[in-house]
Amino acid sequence: MIEARGLSKRFGSQLAVDDLSFEVRPGHVTGFLGPNGAGKSTTMRMILGLDHPTAGSVTVDGKPFTEVSHPLFEVGALIDAKAVHPGRRASDHLLCLAQSNGIQKSRVDEVLGLVGLTDVAKKRVGKFSLGMGQRLGIAAALLGDPEILMFDEPVNGLDPEGILWIRNLLKWLASQGRTVFVSSHLMSEMALTADRLIVIGKGKLIADTTVSELTSSAKGASVRVVSPRADELAVLLGARQAIVVRGDAGVLDVTDLDAAGVGDLAAAHGIPLHELTPKAPTLEEAFFELTKDQTEYTTGAFPGAAQ
Amino acid sequence: MTASEATRPATAGREQVPPRPTGRSFANVLRSELTKLRSVRSTMWTLLVAVFFVIGFGILLGAVVDSKAPGRDFDPTQASLSGIFLAQLATGVLGVLVISSEYSTGMIRTSLAAVPRRRMLLAAKIITFGVAVFVVTAVAAFIAFFSAQALMGSPAATSLGDPGVLRAVIGAPLYLTGIGLLGLALGTMLRRTAGAITALFGVIFVVPIILNVIPLDWLNHLAKYAPGDAGQSMLSVVHRRSDQLSPLTGGLVFLAWVVGALVLATIPLMKRDA
């Protein structure tokens, strides 16, 4: 269990994390979502005691992380896959971490096998690809067989096979009753792995929810209608206060009226329909809707691009 | 039953035996730091360079001294240990790198996630690095001393039993270790390799020159208290220049510099974000 209470972090004039309170509970994969620069990494660094909070506190199983006597048995973290000395062999990198917490040498070989790096154990880490680096970071996090696992953007830069491997690993870890906390700026990725979501933007908490709740509550559900008499139908729909966006010839995009409503209206006036498709918002759209005011750097629309 | 065991409901389906911590915390961190030190190639190379300088200059000096007519002020012990002037570059740089390489590579974040008690981590680095450098350079200093004395022959040569000689030979590894620890302190404060190396050798080489160049008596007088000069006074046996501290005073001043710098380094270490 990770508990943050009023957690804040100021860098100069910038408030990177702003009065953040949340809990991460065991037995789930909890996604930590937000656009780039939202304060996810800073929050994770504060959990590990790497950054000092400006205000508030965060505890791991009721204690500040810096007071834990054998930290690798409590929290395994992958903060940055490149946070290694490139001149050290993979096995030595893991060995020095294991020794610091009194973990037996045999466990190093075990975790190397678990992440599939046994064959390159004697290779110097600087020669590793990004994917191998991520696996090494995960091996380090698993050394102490901890109850709490924390991964910052673990799928960044991975190939499809690596992404699939991470997804399954996260689910497997959570299924054993562990607390799994994973940050990402990719909603679509979280949709596949996370059960719970903590969404932040500009350092503030936006939502503390489940994946299914988030999509069902999102705005943006619409109905796509294709009809040879679309113009006529648009006028009728307008009279019902529905919002109609005209697409290509004969295509309408209707919001504020569901598919049944549109179908009934068309039938009552004898207007033939060639297509009637309800469109649920994707998680990505839901996430975008939630965070559109919260992104650090907003970009202008490309001229001529369809919205 | 500990708290962490209580929150461990489902151990079924795990790897067979979850590892449990063994040993005392500080001993564990010491072992870890020793692994870090020996598992990077540059450590070994840098130490080897220090050893090469100490022994090489011992042999060189022993070979070139005219043993028939040594000067009145000739100090055969100090001469045999002249290699420290070059070897200090190696141990100083190595001391800086022990910590600055962790900051430049980002390893420090991984290290602190495993050992969040920062002072404990620094203490372990000080002890493992200090002991390793002292042992290696002590062996080199004795080899340099004995080979130089053998090459000089009488009457110039001295022996380990003569007054002050053993102390001076041990002074060489103490000096080289102290310079390394000064580098470790500066590396902790500045975090950057280049900056810390510049600061270290500025303090050792440039500060005494500046103090001597300005024509003010009290400033010239201060030069012998600079860390380099104070530390090197530990190595003298025969001649004591008026502008040099006695070996004991010099050693204590040098120790104060090293300890002071290391204590000072814990302040930014604790305060700053990693």
Distance between the termini of chain A: 41 Å
Shape assignment of chain A:
elongated
Order of helix and strand elements from N to C terminus of chain B: HHHHHHHHHHHH
SS-based structural class of chain B?
A: mainly alpha
CATH architecture field of the largest domain in chain A: 3-Layer(aba) Sandwich
What does the largest sheet of chain B look like? none
**Domain unit count of chain A:** 2
Number of helices of chain B: 12
Instruction: Report how far apart the termini of chain B are.
Output: 34 Å
Number of helices of chain A: 11
Strand tally of chain A? 13
The CATH fourth-level homologous superfamily of the largest domain in chain A: P-loop containing nucleotide triphosphate hydrolases
Over the alpha carbons, how many angstroms does the gyration radius of chain B reach?
Answer: 22 Å
List keywords for this structure.
heterodimer; A: 307 residues; alpha/beta; Rossmann fold; Alpha-Beta Plaits; 2 domains; 6-stranded mixed β-sheet; 13 strands; B: 274 residues
Structure description:
- The complex is a heterodimer of chains A (307) and B (274).
- Chain A is an alpha/beta fold and 307 residues long.
- Chain A folds into 2 domains: 2-217, Rossmann fold (3-Layer(aba) Sandwich), CATH 3.40.50.300; 222-279, Alpha-Beta Plaits (2-Layer Sandwich), CATH 3.30.70.
- Helices cover 34% and strands 26% of the residues of chain A.
- Chain A contains 11 helices and 13 strands.
- Chain A has helices at residues 40-47, 71-74, 90-100, 105-114, 130-142, 160-175, 187-193, 211-217, 230-239, 259-268, 283-291, and strands spanning 2-11, 14-24, 29-33, 55-60, 75-78, 148-152, 179-184, 196-201, 204-210, 222-226, 243-246, 251-255, 275-279.
- In chain A, α3 crosses α4.
- The longest helix of chain A has 16 residues, at 160-175.
- The radius of gyration of chain A is 24 Å and the shape is elongated.
- The two termini of chain A are 41 Å apart.
- Chain B is mainly α.
- Chain B has one domain (27-265).
- Chain B is built from 12 helices and no strands.
- In chain B, α5 packs across α6.
- The longest helix of chain B has 35 residues, at 118-152.
- The radius of gyration of chain B is 22 Å and the shape is globular.
- Mean pLDDT of chain B is 89; it is low at 1-17.
